[in-house]
Write a structure and sequence with these properties.
The chain is mostly beta strands. Helices cover 13% and strands 47% of the residues. Strands 2, 3, 4, 5, 6, 7, 8, 9, 10, 11, 13, 14 and 15 form a 13-stranded mixed beta sheet that branches. The chain is globular and about 50 Å long. The N terminus is likely disordered.
């Protein structure tokens, strides 16, 4: 009887799918952006690439972003919800500001009220979905349909899920997302440009495509972003000094920062 119970316990254990919350980990990812504008009879396309390096240790996270026009770092403490943003302008000026949880909420409300930014939707592999935002407020309810498709992306074993959410007109938008069911990202990580922030997903997003369409008069602009994780190191040796603020940065409080950035969006100089 004991041997039967032991065998049953082994079978149950082996069939369970334990997920690992990433810790002492480094994730490298990229965002490839292309913009297509149609003005009358002419159209133009341009693009660029942004690289992300996400460092996670215990309750701390650090997201470093490198693009053609700017470099930035976001350091977050999940215990307090505080976030520190560090930026280097094209002339080498180093500035930074720290947000408390209350500051972040106030800034989010400010951005919503001023910019009414278009909702970003993701196109399933092999096709895209366009959305023109009309400034409506939408409660976006996501649903997940996990399907039996697998493939390797940059050496990472992935499964596919169809994510369904609603646009501003209540139309269902279906999105194909490749994800790893082996890992989960710790809570409280910000600054990932939406790459790893699909709330409710049972795993870590590895690759998907996001499409956003804007219309200004007769000009229609479509922005396509392809998100992809390039590498995951799960046994990294990370020093606590990684999350310290360098002494050569000029730091501001949220009250000081918002005076220079009244829209709630950082003013970045372009090269």
């Amino acid at each position: 009887m004991k041997s039967v119970l032991l065998l049953l316990a082994v079978v149950i254990f082996n069939n369970s799918k334990a997920q690992t919350v990433l810790n002492n980990a480094v994730i490298k990812a990229s965002i490839q952006t292309s913009t297509n504008s149609n003005s009358g009879s002419s159209s133009s396309m341009r693009g660029g690439q942004t690289t992300l390096t996400i460092v996670v240790k215990d309750f701390m996270s650090k997201v470093s972003t490198t693009a053609s026009t700017y470099n930035s770092v976001v350091i977050m403490d999940s215990r307090t919800g505080n976030s520190t943003s560090l930026n280097i302008s094209d002339n080498g000026e180093k500035t930074g500001y720290t947000f408390t949880q209350a500051d972040l909420q106030a800034n989010s409300l400010l951005m919503d009220s001023i910019t009414k930014a278009p909702q970003e939707n993701m196109g399933e592999e092999g096709g895209t979905v366009k959305l023109t935002n009309k400034g409506a407020v939408v409660t976006n309810i996501q649903k997940f349909y996990y399907i039996n498709e697998t493939k390797f992306i940059n050496g990472i074993a992935c499964k596919k899920v169809i994510v369904t959410n609603l646009d501003d007109q209540g139309t269902a938008i279906k999105t194909g997302v490749w994800y790893s069911d082996k890992w989960l990202l710790p809570l409280g990580i910000g600054g990932t440009k939406g790459l790893l922030n699909i709330k409710g997903l049972k795993g870590l997003p590895i690759s998907y495509e996001a499409v956003k369409s804007l219309t200004f008069g007769s000009i229609e602009t479509t922005i396509t972003r392809r998100y992809e994780v390039l590498e995951i190191s799960t046994d990294a040796i990370i020093d606590d000094k990684e999350f310290l603020i360098p002494a050569d940065y000029k730091m501001q409080t949220y009250a000081e920062w918002i005076k220079d950035n009244p829209s709630g969006l950082p003013n970045r100089k372009t090269r």
